[in-house]
Amino acid sequence: MADALSAFALTCSLRRSGQGKPSSTDLFVEHMFDQLRAHGVSCDKAHAADHNILPGVTSDEGEGDDWPALREKVLAADIFILGTPIWLGQPSSICKRILERMDAFLGESDDQSRMPPLGKVALVGVVGNEDGAHATHAACFQALSDVGFTIPANAGCYWVGEAMHGTDYGDLDEPPEVVTQTMQLAAANTVHLAKALKGNPFPGSA
């Protein structure tokens, strides 16, 4: 279908796949995917900790850098999801590294000042058992907007457990109803915006 949409997510748990219990961030993103798939969106993801994303602020930091291949998947999708846990009230260090690598987009605009992600829609999923979801969203959304992604209305999907408690999102029997409702609204708004931008791209500075 000409209007079919695709989504790609990077999940930013600090643990590699197979280390300890399954990632709550990964599960949260899968639940976000469920809501997007209900709108016919095809979804794929990568677990960032399983890849060698070198430090730096270019799109290719040379030998051994896995970012160029991940970058290609980010830009091939209509919708990008960044999933991160909260550590010490902050996005994970892996999440911050991904945003740092996206800094390269600032210098890669075309002759009409259009950066590579222009016309792509971004969501951020946040999980943690401490405070800081809104601050984490603010930091991530600001960075994603700076490099050209468009943020839909009501896009703040998150779950935080009781402060100073050991319960993780993955420990829940099912997502709380309010979290599911938030994901449903975010998915509907994201798909609407992505279709609008796909059919009527931003003009750039010309």
UniProtKB/TrEMBL annotation:
It comes from Pseudoroseicyclus tamaricis. The lineage of its organism: Bacteria, Pseudomonadati, Pseudomonadota, Alphaproteobacteria, Rhodobacterales. SUPFAM superfamilies: Flavoproteins. This is Flavodoxin family protein. One of its GO terms (molecular function) is oxidoreductase activity. Residues 9-162 form the NADPH-dependent FMN reductase-like domain. Signal peptide: none annotated.
